[in-house]
TrEMBL record, chain A:
Cellular localization per UniProt: Cell membrane
Protein name (database record): ABC transporter permease
Keywords: Cell membrane, Membrane, Transmembrane, Transmembrane helix, Transport
Sequence similarity: Belongs to the binding-protein-dependent transport system permease family.
TrEMBL record, chain B:
Domain Solute-binding protein family residues, every copy: 107-510
Listed Low complexity bias regions: 38-51
Sequence similarity: Belongs to the bacterial solute-binding protein 5 family.
Protein name: ABC transporter substrate-binding protein
GO cellular component: ATP-binding cassette (ABC) transporter complex; periplasmic space
Region of interest: Disordered: 26-59
GO molecular function annotations of the record: peptide transmembrane transporter activity
Superkingdom of this protein's organism: Archaea
Keyword Nuclease applies: no
Annotated keywords: Signal, Transport
GO biological process: peptide transport
Organism of origin: Haloferax marisrubri
Record InterPro entries: Peptide/Ni-bd, SBP_5, SBP_5_dom, TAT_signal
Length: 349, 612
């Protein structure tokens, strides 16, 4: 089977997954107890007003016809307008507003996890049962064990009070660049980064640093669990590889330490980490409703949650559809990565 | 169709109050905050006014009054807005004929420079102030006709019944009872700034209704969502980027889910705003809001109950409106805040679906519930215990008459947990250890209310009542209420206008039938499940039959209000818990008048000054 046949098969197999996922979304929202009209009117419920809204939203049509419309619109990418959260605004526009923050947050939390967790894990694995291994492992376990909801609140509270505790010597808000502890970062500098950078390199860099600093605490919290995970799994993977026969053989052949680690150990130890890392990609999409809430970064997670509890069908449908597409996409990507990293995995069978 | 109008008017009452409820239950009034940043260096504190550099959003030039919104903003269209957050901003951008000055519960003229009322109270003639919109056009009577036509006929309007049924402006209906576009009884008078409004029957709170932002003026023809207009701009453009009103502030920007701001309108016909900008950051989470405020990112804000310590309040004076003014602190960052606590016209209550919860059980609830205990232990004193459904300040005869009535006639021991009496009433009805009554308690997702529910559950367990606690989001809670699926439920009500009928229409038995379309409340009060059904029904009919703003009609209504209250005591359709106290806090960087009983969202901000 060629690469392309394999790819095609994977894509075809994902179609039922997408249909199933969106159908479930529709069913949960429309058959459940959620009533978007109640959400719009609140307790100021007036039957006439409600009837009018129902007609406008097409909620008076038979359910099967609503379902067909819903699916048709999604699969032809005619993403509808929000009903409740921002009436009249298209789901696409809303995603455009909310997604960048979540992606920025997700990006940094994955980066923190990757660049702290994996090196630490590998270091611990290469130096097993030494004090530094114990320190790293213990740290990893503690880090892993701290729940997000606790860590987030502690961090926000601590950063807010640093000024008081240090008697004004150090405040998070004024450190390097002035930022708030909570609220979303300004990401305007990404709109046309090259031109803006060329026009005003200093200002652009400052905006970049500011946005990074603003997102850092939230990213640290969100990345903390995966950081611990990657550290632990990285350590185990290295230990397993280091003790395998082919490493011993390579060593016996006189392969140098550096080449041994990078060529034989590192690559093989990455295999179990791949699904962990791609799994984290979900952070980029859903973010974490909780972390976003505590840091007042109203991003996609927040939007998703609000759309869900208010029965905002077009919005939730669109978000689910896109999430499912991206998840299916990352799964396909993951399979490709396997074939690149692990020579034993091919397209056959 | 006078009857329909009356019924709908009650409906309206219910409806409006509800909104308040929603906001209240959601746990907040729009707080406020400011975006000053404080730099501490060497013990010396310097405060700098900043624009929104630290935040997302457009930068604002000049001084900025920073506040917090605890709920997300949905639209800038006055006829489409149903939530408090949108309402707070719309209040600054749009002006109506009337307004509540600093949210005190007495209306005064706004865009109306003067008005006269006909002897039969059905024709109101308004002379408009010499005002302009933010686009420079003059405010004329035909703008109101256009704006109100939108309210009645636009597909974007969510408040058509306000003008058609609640106020009852004359209009025609087609065979199916729908409004015929263009048939409103509103016309231009002798000059182009004279507005004549014809009602189909008198209504005692007409002027108060005209203070509602749904009735705000907007330039004629700006939108094309009613017949005869093409619209100068797209609807979404108006509703999210460019709303044009005649209010003291122009719209500056709104970034979805993040922040919004308004800027001073220099040609305002009234007091031109003293601050250049007002900015609201949207933060829904209590903890985040608290941190934002403590970091002095906001000037003016509310405090979540969890972070609120009643011991830190020092009340210096209480004014004629019952507003407690003083200081609060020191707070976490060492500052002492300015404080105002105002009893708002609100009621939070337990409603019973009387079809499912028999009278002895309801009475047992009434015996056991100690409103005073709940307010002090659960709500940290942020309210006053209530036995009456009408807030005492608007009760006929005022707070004193309310207290006298409670002292002489309240049947269930006010502010006392009487488990013994509860047990007796249950045992008389045949319940006992082996025959407990199971009741489901449904409430909004709130920890505070859950705490209260647990206390009640434990107390009721000794009175042979087994109470299950369930939480639901609003859209679900109300839907289930309307379908008659609730048993005991908690909701609240906040005044749209300061009169008891605004509250007591929830207790008009025929309108509580959940098998009908659109019940006002969900208690299913019938003659089978309540002995005082007839008393309440008759009394409410008296209110409906005497709608005029005259002393005579007022007196008949007042008597009827008392009858409805005592009928409710007898049958325990709704068990009042407390009237909420709204509290706001602000740093010395702001000078702002305390808000009144209509709540902070009704306060216009053109008199606010900053000192930094």
């Amino acid at each position: 089977m060629s690469r392309w046949q394999y790819f095609l098969r994977r894509v075809l197999m994902s179609i039922p997954v997408v249909i199933f996922g969106t159908t479930i979304t529709f069913a949960l929202i429309r058959l459940g107890p959620l009533d978007p009209v109640s959400a719009i009117l609140g307790t100021q419920y007036n039957p006439q007003a409600a009837e009018q809204i129902r007609t406008n939203l097409g909620l008076n049509q038979p359910l099967w016809s609503q379902y067909l419309d819903f699916m048709y619109d999604l699969f032809t990418f005619q993403l509808g307008q929000s009903w409740v959260i921002a009436p009249g605004t298209t789901a696409y526009e809303l995603i455009e507003i909310y997604a960048p923050r979540t992606i920025w947050l997700g990006f940094w939390s994955v980066v923190i996890a990757l660049f702290v967790g994996i090196p630490l894990g590998f270091y611990a694995g290469l130096n097993p049962n030494t004090p530094s291994d114990y320190a790293a492992s213990f740290g990893g376990i503690v880090w892993r064990a701290m729940p997000n909801f606790w860590l987030a609140i502690m961090l926000v509270t601590a950063l807010s009070q640093l000024g008081t505790w240090t008697n004004g010597l150090f405040t998070w808000q004024t450190w390097i660049v002035r930022t708030n502890v909570v609220t979303p970062p300004a990401l305007g500098f990404f709109q046309s980064p090259v031109e803006q950078f060329l026009a005003d390199p200093g200002g652009w860099t400052e905006s970049f640093i500011r946005a990074t600093k603003q997102i850092a605490p939230a990213a640290l919290v969100l990345g903390s669990a995966s950081m611990g995970n990657e550290m632990r799994i990285g350590r185990t993977a290295v230990l397993e590889t280091i003790n395998s026969n082919y490493v011993e053989t390579a060593r016996a052949k006189g392969v140098s330490g550096r080449s041994l680690v990078w060529k034989h150990i590192f690559r093989n130890a990455l295999i179990p980490l791949v699904p962990i890392i791609t799994g984290e990609a979900f952070l980029l999409l859903g973010g974490s409703v909780f972390v976003e809430t505590v840091f007042a970064i109203n991003g996609l997670g927040w939007l998703f949650f609000n759309a869900a509890i208010n029965g905002d069908l077009p919005l939730i449908g669109t978000l689910m559809f896109i999430f499912i597409l991206i998840l299916v996409g990352t799964n396909i990507l993951q399979d490709f990565l396997y074939t690149i990293i692990d020579p034993r995995v091919g397209y056959d069978g | 169709m006078p009857d329909t109008n009356k019924l709908s008017r009650r409906r309206f009452l219910k409806a409006t109050g509800g909104a308040a409820t929603a906001a209240a239950l959601a746990g907040c009034t729009g707080g406020d905050g400011e975006e000053t940043t404080t730099t501490e260096s060497g013990g010396e504190e310097t405060t700098t006014a900043t624009t929104t550099e630290e935040d997302t959003g457009t930068e604002l030039s000049g001084s900025v009054f920073n506040r917090i919104l605890s709920g997300t903003i949905t639209t800038m269209d006055p006829v489409a807005a149903t939530d408090t957050s949108s309402g707070i901003i719309i209040q600054q951008v749009f002006d109506c004929l009337m307004s509540y000055p600093n949210a005190l519960p007495t209306v005064e003229n706004e865009l109306a420079a003067d008005y006269t009322v006909s002897e039969d109270f059905t024709t109101y003639t308004f002379q408009l102030a010499d005002a302009t919109y933010h686009n420079g056009e003059t405010v004329t009577a035909s703008d109101f006709i256009y704006a109100w036509e939108r309210l009645a006929a636009s597909e974007n309007s969510r408040r058509a019944y306000f003008i058609l049924d609640s106020v009852g402006v004359e209009h025609e209906t087609d065979g199916e009872g729908n409004y015929v576009p263009g048939s409103l009884g509103v016309e231009v008078g002798e000059t182009e700034t004279e507005l004549v409004v014809n009602l189909s029957e008198p209504f005692h709170d007409t002027l108060e209704m005209f203070a509602y932002t749904s009735f705000a003026a907007l330039p004629e023809g700006v939108l094309g969502d009613v017949e005869g207009y093409d619209g100068e701009m797209e609807y979404t453009e108006f509703a999210s980027n460019n709303p044009i009103g005649a209010g003291p502030f122009e719209f500056a920007f709104w970034e979805q889910g993040t922040a919004a701001a308004v800027s001073k309108y220099d040609d305002y016909y009234g007091q031109v705003a003293q601050v250049d900008n007002v900015r609201w950051q949207v933060i829904e989470d209590d903890t985040a809001r608290y941190n934002y405020a403590m970091n002095e990112n906001a000037d003016y804000f509310g405090l979540p109950t969890a972070q609120y310590d009643p011991g830190l309040v020092q009340v210096e004076s209480t004014d004629e409106y019952g507003r407690e003014i003083g200081q609060y602190g020191p707070v976490r960052n060492g500052q002492t805040l300015n404080y105002v606590g105002v009893p708002t016209l609100s009621i939070f209550y337990v409603g019973f679906n009387m079809e499912k919860v028999p009278k002895p059980v309801r009475q047992a609830f009434a015996y056991v519930l100690n409103q005073g205990q709940m307010v002090s232990e659960v709500f940290k004193g942020r309210g006053s215990p209530a036995q009456l459904f009408t807030p005492p300040t608007i009760f006929p005869g005022g707070a004193q008459a309310a207290n006298e009535l409670i002292d002489s006639e309240y049947p269930y021991n006010a502010d006392e947990t009487d488990i013994q009496a509860a047990r007796e009433v249950m045992e008389e009805a045949g319940y006992g250890e082996d025959n407990q009554f199971e009741v489901q308690w449904t409430q909004y997702n709130s920890n505070t209310w859950e705490e209260m529910a647990s206390i009640l559950r434990d107390q009721l367990a000794s009175a042979h009542i087994n109470m299950q606690i369930q939480k639901a989001d609003f859209s679900t809670l109300l839907e289930r209420g309307r379908n008659g699926q609730l048993e005991a439920y908690t909701l609240g009500w906040i005044a749209d206008w300061p009169a008891p009928d605004n509250f007591l229409q929830l207790l008009n038995p025929p309108q509580t039938d959940t098998s009908e379309q659109g019940p006002i409340s969900y208690v299913n009060w019938t003659s089978e499940n309540g002995d005082a059904y007839q008393q309440a029904t008759d009394a409410y009919q008296q209110v409906v039959n005497n709608p005029a703003p005259t002393d005579e009609a007022q007196q008949i209504r007042d008597e009827a209000y008392v009858d409805i209250e005592t009928a409710n005591w007898e049958d325990v359709a709704m068990l009042p818990i407390y009237n909420r106290k709204d509290e706001t806090f602000w740093y010395d960087t702001v000078n702002i008048e305390p808000f009144g009983g209509m709540g902070p969202s009704r306060q216009k901000l053109n008199n606010v000054t900053l000192n930094r």
